[in-house]
Design goal:
Structural class: alpha/beta
Helix content: 40-55%
Largest sheet: 6 strands, mixed
Mean pLDDT: 89
Radius of gyration: 24 Å
Strand content: 5-15%
Order of helices and strands: HHEHHHHHHHHHHHEHHEHEHEEEHEEE
Distance between the termini: 72 Å
């Protein structure tokens, strides 16, 4: 692997500021038209932002308690709450979430420039990974922290060229805290990226691999101080399952889902194209990897292989790092001197790939948003401040296409200040807690999700059991999404709204049973 910047002379169109500006515009383009980000979890997050912004205020204070604390999962939450005096939660969330892909693309381009000295021809191949599967799922706090992790690696490389080593240590002590507050896994990625790059940098300066690794670890160690917060109990202790180690079939599924969006064959072909690019760079004598990015990419790939799927209640932990491992690998590719035709061809195909993926993501987001807006027609049938049991017809886990309705009821929290059972309430990962103990087990996510019969998901709710068992004293409405009118069979449920695909039922209150 080569380690130094590419110092070849001669301007090229992909080295210009115009190219960078167009790339940043392309990064935000899919987010411009939907009224809110059409990501799977995003509506639920927006509901939580409303709860946080109006903490202690009626009617939401009757439904949710807010336990303020310092936890490693607050990035977008804090930004939206900070903007609340100027913008309501929906436009604030739309603005902040739309800027995450922009920040990711900007970090990628900055990082590539720091490692190569100028933008490599392959750079645009990495840019669609700003819309990789973790972002599509709506892991917005994590994706914000991952963008900051990549920007942090670029900053580290720049300071390594321009400042003494102690400056990096001092700068990254607070920077690591910032990334951790956004999301703890992005903070872990930052340490991995920086440690790997510093290790390679020192080895290329002539140090032994052992000494280089030891010094790199010592330089990264001050960034580990947020561990003290997690161990001290200053914030809530994490709770939940850890497991599902070395699930190779799931990891293979994550790999092919790198750019999963809407159209299975197209998305997989795009992943295969990226894999072929990386394989070509490994095999070709005309291309090689810059070690400053190649080593962090390799370490990230190893982390993907060894991490479990579940960690203290957090789901899909291993898959989150994979898009950034791929991006680092692609950004590490450089064409050897003496091959200008290959440089131009690679840049042209990379830019075309980014443009095509931007166009199809824009179309996909428009279609996802239309489906969500149709489902949200039911909101007018929900009394403000009421408690609503939500049941969502969720596709099988084997289905590539997902209409992204599992948390759409979060918009009802934002607009009607209702209680729903779709909010997350894992200790140490969210600040909110439901205040309806009688509603258990239908008081929090994933009690709203109904998979098809026979699904292998052990968290799926049985529709008929839920209708029979939910607490009539807590809930005033039942909102079924994706189920036809009348599917909810119970004598005390009265249909008050339906559009043929979803329905809202009023719950008859038994004064004798409900004080």
């Amino acid at each position: 692997m080569s380690t130094g910047p590419d110092q070849r002379s001669g301007p090229a169109w992909w080295h210009t500021r115009a190219f960078v500006l167009l790339a940043l515009l392309g990064a935000v383009l899919p987010m411009l038209w939907p009224p809110f980000a059409p990501l799977t979890d995003a509506p639920g997050h927006i509901g939580r932002y409303r709860i946080l912004a109006e903490a202690g205020m009626a009617p939401l204070a009757q439904h949710y308690a807010v336990h303020w604390g310092l936890i490693g999962n607050l990035g977008v939450d804090l930004l939206v709450v900070a903007l609340h005096p100027l913008l309501d939660v929906e436009p604030a969330a739309r603005l902040v979430i739309a800027l995450i892909p922009v920040a990711t693309v900007a970090a990628m381009l900055w990082l590539a420039r720091e490692a190569h000295g100028r933008l490599p021809a392959s750079a645009a191949f990495a840019l669609p990974l700003a819309y990789s599967f973790p972002f599509q799922l709506g892991f917005v706090n994590f994706c914000l922290s991952a963008a900051l992790a990549m920007a942090g690696l670029a900053l580290w490389l720049r300071l390594a060229r321009t400042r003494p080593a102690y400056v990096r240590v001092l700068v990254f002590i607070p920077y690591a805290g910032l990334v951790w507050v956004c999301h703890s896994f992005g903070w872990a990625m930052l340490g991995l990226f920086v440690g790997g790059a510093e290790w390679r940098r020192r080895m290329s300066a002539g140090e032994s691999w052992y000494r280089a690794g030891l010094v790199a670890a010592l330089m990264a160690l001050p960034m580990a101080w947020p561990v003290a917060i997690m161990l001290s109990g200053a914030g809530d202790h994490l709770a939940g399952d850890t497991g599902d180690w070395f699930h190779w079939s799931a990891k293979a599924q994550w790999a092919v889902s790198l750019l999963r969006e809407r159209w299975k064959a197209y998305d997989i072909v795009c992943v295969i194209l990226l894999a072929c690019l990386l394989w070509s760079a490994i095999r070709s004598k005309r291309m090689r990897f810059v070690g400053l990015l190649g080593i962090p990419a390799l370490l990230s790939l190893i982390a993907f292989l060894v991490l479990p799927r579940l960690f203290q209640g957090g789901a899909d932990v291993d898959m989150r790092i994979l898009p950034y491992a791929a991006a680092l690998g692609i950004l590490a590719i450089r064409v050897e001197p003496g091959h200008p035709a290959l440089d131009r061809t690679l840049a042209l195909f990379a830019t075309a790939f980014f443009a095509i993926r931007t166009a199809t993501t824009t179309l996909a987001f428009l279609l996802f948003s239309q489906g969500q807006q149709v489902a949200l027609r039911a909101i007018d049938a929900l009394p403000p401040g009421s408690a609503v049991l939500v049941l969502v017809d969720e596709p099988s886990l084997k289905s590539w296409f997902n209409p992204r309705l599992s948390h759409v009821a979060g918009i009802a929290i934002a607009r009607r200040r209702v209680f729903t059972n779709e909010q997350w309430a894992l200790t140490g990962q969210q600040l909110i807690r439901p205040l309806h103990p009688r509603a258990v087990p239908f008081d929090a996510d994933p009690s709203q999700i109904v998979h098809p019969p026979g699904s292998s998901n052990d968290q799926s709710v049985d529709f008929d059991m839920a209708i029979a068992a939910f607490d009539r004293c807590t809930f005033q409405r039942v909102w079924t999404i994706g189920f036809p009118a009348g599917r909810a069979h119970a004598a005390d449920l009265k249909l008050v709204w339906s559009d043929g695909r979803s329905a809202v039922y009023a719950v008859a209150r038994d004064a004798a049973r409900c004080p």
